[in-house]
């Protein structure tokens, strides 16, 4: 198995924890990182509580190759991500000169005052660099392996898509998805036997409902594309033998 | 501030981490727990890796009042939640007699064999009790403060809704949501001032887009309904003073 770099997403947001908002960022980031050979290995959703943010960041940044935070950067009093990450790194919070220049130019262009609240959006840990937002203006920040992104999905996506090519990925994770009508209880033994023969391939079974019909999806996943395809063919043959193979996606 | 019990959700699922599946359980559980006065304070999404599951469960069960796991209970080789939770509690994994009786009756009724794979679904940590599924048949389990739920949303919901009344909640968390067209940078100072005067109310600001218009949602949240309403009124007055108040929801 080829080793891939790893990632962890930290969602900072009371609004997700309360259930008021359905998170849309985890799925977006996870898919794109996976396709770049950087599997997401853990996600934390945590509240806007300084101690929790500091402790979480320090725990995960030591454990994973890349960290992505979403949420809590903005002009209001509840936007505390930048200061908490500065604290986690033991560095002061400062007005990042490049970010301040971007904000100054932007507010001048639209004829609005760059007041104290808006200037907060240039707050970054000392030593952080700007993550450019090529569409809007408000940037994210990066300090060592931690990428600080906003929570608003469109803005997060603009910044994330722009930074993605700068990350060093491993071979992309490829998947082979077999969908069939065999109940899990009827295929478990045969599937286990295949899984044992492909220890480097992650083989998972997911029951669900599609068009009012119970289906089972069997996913072979790994970074060795040929091996994934071979395991996938065995799984498809097994499904056809035990019931109806509905479709195969690679 | 009235103290509420707390909750943590642990999503066990490679399919969520890979981005192949959009999680639907966090939001469902978080909303219902919040309405019952049990705020979710952290969510972890972790892979199907035994060490990670054991370590995570032991960390969070010491920290929060109630733990809810979703995913990884079923008949296939990748369903390892029950055995990992047994390991976390330092107890053996066993066939739970009540669960086994439910499964035996169910498979007899539909005329299918209760094979070894299906019998795995009665695997539970020694000392766990059954969480009844009043609609389908496959149950969840509970050991001390840890509730073990399946990942398929419909099945999870049936079991969760059935167990919810058994939890001891605090006063429900109530929200007052003010939506306006004032940009965050134009209201941040006034909002901070209100937030300082209501230290027991959690006041958050969330920029977003609605009907192609930029809007800001200002949320006052807490378990003291009267105080939330008073703070909410002040926030609404502020929004109307600085721009257009679009709507207020309580």
Model description:
- Two copies of one chain form a homodimer.
- Chain A has 250 residues and is an alpha/beta fold.
- Helices cover 38% and strands 26% of the residues of chain A.
- In chain A, the strands form three sheets. In chain A, strands 2-1-3-8-7-6 form a six-stranded mixed sheet, with helices on both faces. The first copy, chain A, has a four-stranded antiparallel sheet with strand order 10-11-9-12, with helices on one face. A two-stranded antiparallel ribbon of chain A has the order 4-5.
- In chain A, strand 10 and strand 11 form a beta hairpin.
- Chain A starts with 6 loop residues before the first strand and ends with a strand.
- The model of chain A has no long low-confidence stretch (mean pLDDT 94).
- Strand 2 of chain A pairs antiparallel with strand 2 of chain B, so a sheet runs across the interface.
């Amino acid at each position: 198995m080829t080793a891939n770099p790893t990632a962890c997403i930290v969602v900072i947001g009371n609004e997700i924890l309360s259930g008021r908002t359905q998170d849309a960022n985890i799925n977006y980031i996870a898919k794109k990182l996976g396709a770049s050979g950087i599997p997401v290995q853990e996600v934390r959703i945590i509240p806007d509580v300084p101690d929790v943010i500091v402790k979480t960041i320090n725990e995960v940044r030591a454990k994973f190759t890349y960290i992505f935070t979403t949420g809590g950067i903005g002009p209001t009093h509840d936007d505390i991500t930048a200061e908490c990450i500065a604290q986690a790194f033991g560095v002061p919070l400062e007005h990042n000169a490049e970010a301040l220049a971007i904000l100054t130019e932007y507010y001048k262009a639209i004829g609005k005052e760059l007041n104290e609240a808006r200037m907060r959006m240039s707050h970054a840990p000392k030593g952080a660099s700007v993550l450019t937002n090529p569409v809007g203006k408000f940037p994210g920040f990066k300090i060592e392996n931690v990428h600080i992104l906003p929570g608003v999905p469109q803005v997060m996506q603009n910044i994330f898509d722009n930074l993605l090519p700068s990350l060093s990925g491993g071979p992309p994770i490829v998947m082979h998805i077999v969908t069939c009508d065999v109940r899990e209880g009827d295929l478990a033994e045969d599937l286990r036997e295949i899984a044992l023969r492909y220890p480097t391939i992650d083989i998972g079974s997911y029951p669900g409902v599609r068009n009012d019909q119970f289906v089972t999806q069997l996913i072979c996943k790994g970074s060795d594309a040929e091996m994934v395809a071979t395991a996938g063919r065995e799984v498809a043959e097994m499904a056809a033998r035990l019931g109806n193979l509905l479709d195969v996606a690679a």
